Amino acid sequence: MDERTTCVVVGGGPAGMVLGLLLARAGVEVTVLEKHGDFLRDFRGDTVHPSTLHLLDELGLGERFASLPQSRLDEVAFPVDDGPQIVIADLRRLRTPHPYVAMVPQWDLLNLLADAGAAEPTFTLRMRAEVTELIQEAGRVQGVRYRGPDGKSREIRADLTVACDGRWSIARRQAELRPREFPVPIDAWWFRLPRDPDDDPAGLTPRVGQGRFAVVIPREGYLQIAYLARKGTDAQLRARGIEHFRRDIAELSPSFADRVGALASMDDVKHLDVRLNRLDRWHVDGLLCLGDAAHAMSPVGGVGINLAVQDAVAAATLLAEPLRRGRVTPAELAAVRKRRLLPTILVQRLQRIMHRNLVEPILDGRRAGPPRVVLGLLRRFPALSLVPAYLIGIGVRPEHAPPFARRPPSGVAVDDQGG
Fold first, then answer.
1. Which residues form the FAD-binding domain (predicted)?
2. Closest CA to 362 of 229, 231, 183
3. Spatial separation of the C-alpha atoms in residues 96 and 118, rounded to whole Å
4. In 3-state terms, what secondary structure has residue 171?
5. Confidence at residue 207, expressed as pLDDT on a 0 to 100 scale
6. CA nearest 159: which of 139, 131, 140, 132?
7. If residue 324 lies in a helix (H) or strand (E), which one and from where to where?
8. How many beta carbons lie within 10 A of that of residue 55, not counting itself?
9. How many other C-beta atoms lie within 10 A of the C-beta of residue 268?
10. With contact defined as beta carbons under 8 Å apart, do 307 and 395 qualify?
11. Are 288 and 7 a contacting pair, CB within 8 Å?
């Protein structure tokens, strides 16, 4: 059976779910298509930064989010050989209601957004709905074809299609929008180890060895670890096997030596092909790309999910009224990119600088941490740790919920003018 909606969103990740919820609260009929049957997938973006936490408060979802099992990070610190560790980013210095990064499994956040969307009469979420093709007629995108839970092909036509389907976006590819790729020297391998009572519960701490680099993230009941190595070495790592990988991790961080046995095989180590790219144009007539579909980010800094959410807020703010009118022009779609381009460029440039001046020298064995001049400044002037904390936690242009989407805590209804 073919369908009709005002806006169809391809992909039920953070950007897609936030966009769907906000548009529905504006009274726009919106359908989100998610190809999986649930949101349960390991090692997706699980960092919810202060800017996103503030947004959840504005949406009336802050208390419900706070009730989810989570750990909180309030600093990024780097160990040094000649003294105590240096705090690179001190989130506690931020003047914001939530001066920390909440570490929450992404599926919990997505389920929360899905529940909030279900309360809106114009919101529809279809699971196990895999988009296979754009409908392109009369020079514009008119919707999508997708495969439903029964395997049958369906059509859903819409005034606007929004691609929130990630860095390998099928919608972007079919619209022949090609991102500009930036060189990335690293890939990441994610795994988890048991958490010890002596582990720092609130600090994100890199572990550095000769030509090796890992980032340890304390989670609720376990440690999530990102092991960084040269791009293109996944086959080599896997060929060496789990015993070699365990020894590598134990040498990098001796405190993990009694825990690496929790890695049963290399199947427990998940490879992330790190990409850094950006579309020069985020739209064609009838289609808009957001989040990773518009700009894939490096995991360095952990900002990808929060940039994607801010893209969604900006898109809802700018496009709700045109969608209510029943027609979104290419110029109105271009306005979304214009609003979100500067933050995207600045974050990607910062990530490239960090790749070049921090990660690469460590992997090459030329340095064991940040440049000495940086460490010296932070040791002498600790307040400087506010600058990276702001860039990580708040960002260059944080977006706030538009008035039509705001709600008081506990889901108490207000009219569309509330805020």
1. 5-327
2. 229
3. 29
4. helix
5. 82
6. 140
7. helix 304-325
8. 25
9. 15
10. yes
11. no
